[in-house]
């Protein structure tokens, strides 16, 4: 049984971990719309790329000749390669994110994933709560991130989670990541149900994390055991919802869950705690 006190502890932890930035941020503007948000030092560094960016009052804009997505993307690629060479980015992923006025809209430009937080652009993810019904009890699978991960190495995570790359769809991302991270075959992964979204907007060491995460619940057979296919998961752990809540509430230590995964798990835990009808029938 999950207690309200534990849920309140999780809420308090998330309020601290996901607090919005307090310092003033410099908007990166395309036309009249904000495409990204930069810390002061990063804005100054980008302004030094005078062939790509211009100061426009309190904002940073693209040079006028960069008038379409292809041109902006090529210019951004040159800038991000230089930033990577300077050691200013996390590990290069060779994966592109689309930066657009809305999810699925035609992009203003695409950007290397490792640079997304540096530029403070709005990214999108898809996470999966792996759930199991065992008689009258519900269990949750957690995954420990590999020690070689570029972000949050060694921390606990949702069973499945990944960024939605440029030209990818949320459902396809779930199916792809479910196989790569946990060995969940497509027919089973496809039964994951979208339960809504959660939002993250906070400052991190590598920049501004502005992310919308599509939250999914996936009910797995009791006999299923996840196996990482891409070696990005060090271990899997199946725990009761009560144990999951206690772990998510932790603010430190080796079993700390990443802030994003904690938010996704908390969304699930509160739904199952307050609305048991969302569980599948026995």
Description:
The strands form three sheets. Strands 7, 8, 9, 10, 11, 12 and 13 form a seven-stranded mixed beta sheet that branches. The protein has helices spanning 4-17, 40-47, 69-85, 116-119, 170-182, 186-189, 241-248, 259-274; strands at 26-30, 33-38, 53-56, 59-62, 96-99, 109-112, 122-134, 137-145, 156-158, 160-163, 193-204, 207-219, 233-240. With 282 residues, the protein is of the alpha+beta class. It starts with a helix and ends in an 8-residue tail after the last helix.
Which terms summarize this structure?
282 residues, alpha+beta, 4-stranded mixed beta sheet, 8 helices, 13 strands
Layout of helices and strands:
Blueprint: H1 4-17, E1 26-30, E2 33-38, H2 40-47, E3 53-56, E4 59-62, H3 69-85, E5 96-99, E6 109-112, H4 116-119, E7 122-134, E8 137-145, E9 156-158, E10 160-163, H5 170-182, H6 186-189, E11 193-204, E12 207-219, E13 233-240, H7 241-248, H8 259-274
Parallel strand pairs: 1-4, 7-12
Antiparallel strand pairs: 1-2, 3-4, 5-6, 7-8, 7-10, 8-9, 8-13, 11-12
What helical percentage do the residues reach?
25-40%
**What is the helix tally?**
8
Beta-strand share of residues: 25-35%
CA distance, first residue to last residue: 18 Å
Rg, please?
A: 20 Å
Q: Quick one: biggest sheet?
A: 7 strands, mixed
The ordered string of helix (H) and strand (E) elements is HEEHEEHEEHEEEEHHEEEHH
Which blocks of ≥5 consecutive residues have pLDDT under 50?
A: none
Number of strands: 13
Please state the average pLDDT score. Answer: 95
Q: What gross morphology would you assign?
A: elongated
